Amino acid sequence: QVELVESGGGLVQAGGSLTLSCVASGSIYIYSIRSMGWYRQAPGRQRELVAAITSDGNTNYADSVRGRFTIARNSTKNAWYLQLTSLKPEDTAVYYCNADGLRERHRFTPAHNYWGQGTQVTVSA
């Protein structure tokens, strides 16, 4: 059973930095992950894409975080990271990691989508 385990959230002052980590575990062997991403959800708002990186290294960022956040991955460890810098109070949210198109064992197994449990990021003014 694949599980995404997140870490790195916390409380930080405006202008500060944090790094979030996500590791996919629980599988005998993860063959591939099409896209690794980070989403966030603030109170009263819909979950939104923050950043994503594909298996071939292409990245995509929300306009609100471009230039401040950086997504990176370590495919050999089935891990990905989100570096958050120049944080603003409006970045306060629960951040969720996402694995889209994850295949276990080999290329013919069905691909599935997985979510982490969420980690709170709070930015004080």
Question: Which sheet architecture does the biggest sheet show?
Answer: 7 strands, mixed
Helix content: under 10%
- Mean pLDDT equals 95
Number of strands: 11
What percentage of the residues does DSSP assign to strands (E)? over 45%
Radius of gyration: 14 Å
Structural class by sheet pairing and helices: mainly beta
The poorly predicted ranges are: none
The topology string of helices and strands comes to EEEEEEEEEEE
How far do the termini sit from each other?
40 Å
Helices, by number, come to 0
Please describe what this structure looks like.
The protein is elongated and about 50 Å long. The protein is mainly β and 125 residues long. The chain is 0% helix and 58% strand. Strands 2, 4, 5, 6, 9, 10 and 11 form a seven-stranded mixed sheet that branches. The protein has a four-stranded antiparallel sheet with strand order 1-3-8-7, with no helix packed on it. Strand 4 and strand 5 form a beta hairpin.
